[in-house]
């Protein structure tokens, strides 16, 4: 009896492994497409992510009270200066703060890139942002090529090479 149970269990495990291996070969890797969104900038203009199709888009999610977000501003300004006339767009999405507070922050820190207001946090939810700063690089076809917390190793420049 024990021998029969062992054989049945072994066959079930072999069948499971065969199915799992077969499934791994049969499925394609799902490429993460960036969720489109439209948010207001600090001037009240609507900005839509898909309008930048054909360019790479570096998106940072953050808030004025986040010390790591503040620390990134000079690096993002330098990145923006270097790439503003090329095919890379820099967007910062501020989560759950008033336009006045964010505008004051932008002025104080001489922010050069576009800041968008995610006043209800819905875009951050779409991107599954659980901590800030959160960084995403979207390629020219709208595919997420990088996502991570804070400035990547090698800086933002390393993302677009």
Key terms:
161 residues, Glutaredoxin, seven-stranded mixed sheet, alpha/beta
Question: Concise description?
Answer:
Helix content is 35%, strand content 24%. The protein has four helices and seven strands; from the N terminus they run αβββαβαβαββ.
Question: What do we call the CATH homologous superfamily?
Answer: Glutaredoxin
Beta strand count: 7
What is the average of the pLDDT values? 84
**Beta-strand percentage?**
15-25%
Helix/strand order, N-terminal first: HEEEHEHEHEE
Q: Share of helix among residues? A: 25-40%
Tally the structural domains: 1
What value does the Rg take, in angstroms? 22 Å
Topology-level CATH name: Glutaredoxin
Judged by helices, strands and strand pairing, the structural class is alpha/beta
* Main β sheet profile: 7 strands, mixed
> How far from one another are the termini?
63 Å
Provide the CATH architecture.
3-Layer(aba) Sandwich
Number of alpha- plus pi-helical segments: 4
Instruction: Kindly provide the name of the CATH class.
Output: Alpha Beta
Order of neighbouring strands in the sheet with most strands: 2-1-5-4-3-6-7
The residue ranges in which pLDDT falls below 50 over 5 or more consecutive positions are 5-29
């Amino acid at each position: 009896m024990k021998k029969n149970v062992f054989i049945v269990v072994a066959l079930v495990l072999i069948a499971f492994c065969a199915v799992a291996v077969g499934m791994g070969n049969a499925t394609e890797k799902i490429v993460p497409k960036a969720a489109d969104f439209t948010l207001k900038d600090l001037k009240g203009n609507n900005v839509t992510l898909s309008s930048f199709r054909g360019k790479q888009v570096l998106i940072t999610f953050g808030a004025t009270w986040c010390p790591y977000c503040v620390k990134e501003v000079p690096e993002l300004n330098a990145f923006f200066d270097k790439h503003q006339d090329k095919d890379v767009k820099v967007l910062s999405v501020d989560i759950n703060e008033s336009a006045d507070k964010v505008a004051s922050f932008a002025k104080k820190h001489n922010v050069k890139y576009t800041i968008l207001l995610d006043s209800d946090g819905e875009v951050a939810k779409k991107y599954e942002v659980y901590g800030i700063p959160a960084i995403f690089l979207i390629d020219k076809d709208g595919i997420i090529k990088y996502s991570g917390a804070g400035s990547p190793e090698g800086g933002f420049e390393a993302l677009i090479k």
